[in-house]
Design goal:
alpha+beta, three-stranded antiparallel beta sheet, 3 helices, 5 strands, transmembrane helix, GOLD_dom
Protein backbone atom coordinates (compact mmCIF):
# COMPACT_ATOMS: atom_id res chain seq x y z
CA UNK A 1 0.00 0.00 0.00
CA UNK A 2 2.85 2.41 0.78
CA UNK A 3 4.46 1.77 -2.60
CA UNK A 4 1.29 2.87 -4.40
CA UNK A 5 1.21 6.07 -2.37
CA UNK A 6 4.87 6.72 -3.18
CA UNK A 7 4.27 6.04 -6.91
CA UNK A 8 1.29 8.40 -6.97
CA UNK A 9 3.32 11.08 -5.17
CA UNK A 10 6.20 10.76 -7.64
CA UNK A 11 3.80 10.78 -10.59
CA UNK A 12 2.09 13.97 -9.32
CA UNK A 13 5.48 15.65 -8.92
CA UNK A 14 6.27 14.99 -12.57
CA UNK A 15 2.92 16.40 -13.67
CA UNK A 16 3.46 19.79 -12.02
CA UNK A 17 6.62 20.68 -13.98
CA UNK A 18 6.86 21.87 -17.58
CA UNK A 19 10.21 20.68 -18.87
CA UNK A 20 11.77 20.87 -22.32
CA UNK A 21 14.99 19.21 -23.46
CA UNK A 22 16.70 19.82 -26.78
CA UNK A 23 20.12 19.68 -28.41
CA UNK A 24 21.76 22.95 -29.39
CA UNK A 25 24.48 22.96 -32.03
CA UNK A 26 27.28 25.55 -31.79
CA UNK A 27 26.52 29.05 -33.17
CA UNK A 28 22.83 28.28 -33.73
CA UNK A 29 19.57 29.66 -32.35
CA UNK A 30 16.60 27.94 -30.80
CA UNK A 31 13.38 29.90 -30.31
CA UNK A 32 10.73 28.65 -27.89
CA UNK A 33 7.31 30.18 -27.39
CA UNK A 34 4.75 29.67 -24.65
CA UNK A 35 1.41 31.42 -24.74
CA UNK A 36 0.35 32.75 -21.33
CA UNK A 37 -2.33 35.03 -20.08
CA UNK A 38 -1.53 38.59 -19.15
CA UNK A 39 -0.04 39.25 -15.68
CA UNK A 40 0.84 35.60 -14.99
CA UNK A 41 4.14 35.23 -13.10
CA UNK A 42 6.68 32.92 -14.74
CA UNK A 43 9.97 31.53 -13.48
CA UNK A 44 12.36 29.26 -15.26
CA UNK A 45 15.55 27.34 -14.73
CA UNK A 46 17.87 26.00 -17.34
CA UNK A 47 20.71 23.53 -17.32
CA UNK A 48 23.27 23.11 -20.08
CA UNK A 49 25.62 20.18 -20.55
CA UNK A 50 29.28 20.99 -20.04
CA UNK A 51 31.40 21.83 -23.08
CA UNK A 52 34.86 23.30 -22.48
CA UNK A 53 35.33 26.74 -23.99
CA UNK A 54 31.68 27.03 -25.07
CA UNK A 55 29.08 29.35 -23.63
CA UNK A 56 25.39 29.74 -24.34
CA UNK A 57 23.56 33.07 -24.59
CA UNK A 58 19.89 33.46 -23.82
CA UNK A 59 17.30 36.18 -24.25
CA UNK A 60 13.77 36.09 -22.83
CA UNK A 61 11.30 38.40 -24.57
CA UNK A 62 7.61 39.05 -24.19
CA UNK A 63 5.10 39.03 -27.05
CA UNK A 64 5.79 42.70 -27.83
CA UNK A 65 9.52 42.13 -28.19
CA UNK A 66 10.59 43.67 -24.88
CA UNK A 67 13.60 41.96 -23.32
CA UNK A 68 12.79 40.51 -19.89
CA UNK A 69 16.04 38.68 -19.16
CA UNK A 70 19.29 38.37 -21.04
CA UNK A 71 22.77 36.86 -20.75
CA UNK A 72 25.25 37.56 -23.53
CA UNK A 73 28.80 36.36 -23.99
CA UNK A 74 31.22 36.63 -26.87
CA UNK A 75 32.09 33.38 -28.63
CA UNK A 76 34.64 33.26 -31.45
CA UNK A 77 33.01 32.26 -34.75
CA UNK A 78 36.04 30.23 -35.86
CA UNK A 79 35.94 27.98 -32.79
CA UNK A 80 34.56 24.51 -33.45
CA UNK A 81 32.29 23.17 -30.78
CA UNK A 82 30.10 20.28 -29.82
CA UNK A 83 26.34 20.01 -29.52
CA UNK A 84 25.09 20.75 -26.03
CA UNK A 85 21.99 19.40 -24.34
CA UNK A 86 19.76 22.10 -22.88
CA UNK A 87 17.11 21.42 -20.25
CA UNK A 88 14.55 24.15 -19.56
CA UNK A 89 12.06 24.00 -16.69
CA UNK A 90 9.33 26.64 -16.47
CA UNK A 91 6.70 27.25 -13.84
CA UNK A 92 3.87 29.76 -14.01
CA UNK A 93 0.85 30.83 -12.05
CA UNK A 94 0.28 29.15 -8.69
CA UNK A 95 3.41 26.99 -9.06
CA UNK A 96 5.58 30.13 -8.78
CA UNK A 97 4.39 31.14 -5.31
CA UNK A 98 6.26 29.92 -2.23
CA UNK A 99 3.41 28.94 0.08
CA UNK A 100 5.70 27.78 2.89
CA UNK A 101 7.17 31.27 3.26
CA UNK A 102 3.69 32.77 2.87
CA UNK A 103 2.33 30.54 5.65
CA UNK A 104 5.18 31.41 8.00
CA UNK A 105 4.82 35.15 7.34
CA UNK A 106 1.06 35.07 7.95
CA UNK A 107 1.34 32.63 10.90
CA UNK A 108 -0.88 30.09 9.17
CA UNK A 109 -1.17 26.42 10.00
CA UNK A 110 -0.07 23.95 7.32
CA UNK A 111 -3.68 23.10 6.49
CA UNK A 112 -4.53 26.79 6.09
CA UNK A 113 -1.53 27.23 3.81
CA UNK A 114 -2.68 24.27 1.73
CA UNK A 115 -6.22 25.70 1.58
CA UNK A 116 -4.79 29.03 0.36
CA UNK A 117 -2.84 27.20 -2.34
CA UNK A 118 -5.96 25.30 -3.40
CA UNK A 119 -7.99 28.53 -3.46
CA UNK A 120 -5.37 30.19 -5.66
CA UNK A 121 -5.30 27.12 -7.88
CA UNK A 122 -9.09 27.13 -8.26
CA UNK A 123 -9.04 30.87 -9.06
CA UNK A 124 -6.39 30.22 -11.71
CA UNK A 125 -8.51 27.44 -13.21
CA UNK A 126 -11.56 29.73 -13.32
CA UNK A 127 -9.46 32.42 -15.03
CA UNK A 128 -8.14 29.85 -17.51
CA UNK A 129 -11.68 28.77 -18.37
CA UNK A 130 -12.78 32.39 -18.80
CA UNK A 131 -9.79 32.98 -21.09
CA UNK A 132 -10.60 29.83 -23.09
CA UNK A 133 -14.24 30.92 -23.38
CA UNK A 134 -13.13 34.34 -24.67
CA UNK A 135 -10.73 32.73 -27.17
CA UNK A 136 -13.47 30.32 -28.28
CA UNK A 137 -15.83 33.26 -28.92
CA UNK A 138 -13.14 35.07 -30.91
CA UNK A 139 -12.40 31.94 -32.94
CA UNK A 140 -16.12 31.33 -33.54
CA UNK A 141 -16.56 34.93 -34.75
CA UNK A 142 -13.55 34.52 -37.06
CA UNK A 143 -14.95 31.22 -38.34
CA UNK A 144 -18.37 32.73 -39.02
CA UNK A 145 -16.82 35.74 -40.78
CA UNK A 146 -14.66 33.45 -42.93
CA UNK A 147 -17.69 31.29 -43.70
CA UNK A 148 -19.65 34.35 -44.88
CA UNK A 149 -16.75 35.53 -47.03
CA UNK A 150 -16.40 32.10 -48.63
CA UNK A 151 -20.15 32.04 -49.33
CA UNK A 152 -20.09 35.46 -51.01
CA UNK A 153 -16.95 34.56 -52.95
CA UNK A 154 -18.62 31.32 -54.12
CA UNK A 155 -21.72 33.22 -55.27
CA UNK A 156 -19.52 35.78 -57.06
CA UNK A 157 -17.52 32.97 -58.72
CA UNK A 158 -20.72 31.23 -59.88
CA UNK A 159 -22.06 34.48 -61.32
CA UNK A 160 -18.76 35.06 -63.15
CA UNK A 161 -18.81 31.52 -64.54
CA UNK A 162 -22.44 31.83 -65.68
CA UNK A 163 -21.68 35.18 -67.28
CA UNK A 164 -18.62 33.82 -69.08
CA UNK A 165 -20.51 30.71 -70.21
CA UNK A 166 -23.34 32.86 -71.60
CA UNK A 167 -20.88 35.17 -73.34
CA UNK A 168 -19.04 32.17 -74.81
CA UNK A 169 -22.26 30.62 -76.18
CA UNK A 170 -23.38 33.91 -77.71
CA UNK A 171 -19.93 34.60 -79.17
CA UNK A 172 -19.64 31.13 -80.72
CA UNK A 173 -23.19 31.35 -82.08
CA UNK A 174 -22.37 34.66 -83.76
CA UNK A 175 -19.08 33.28 -85.07
CA UNK A 176 -20.69 30.17 -86.54
CA UNK A 177 -23.47 32.27 -88.11
CA UNK A 178 -20.88 34.58 -89.63
CA UNK A 179 -19.05 31.57 -91.11
CA UNK A 180 -22.44 30.18 -92.23
CA UNK A 181 -21.93 26.91 -90.36
CA UNK A 182 -25.32 27.22 -88.62
CA UNK A 183 -28.51 29.05 -89.49
Amino acid sequence: MEIWGLCILLFSLFLSVNSIMFNLAPNTYKCLKEELQQNVPVIGEYEISEAPGQKVDYIVKDSKGHTLSQKKTSIPQHQRGITQEVSLITKHGVDVKNYDAFGEAANLKPIETELQRLEDLSNEIVQDFAYMRKREEEMRDTNESTNNRVLYFSIFSMCCLLGLATWQVLYLRRYFKAKKLIE
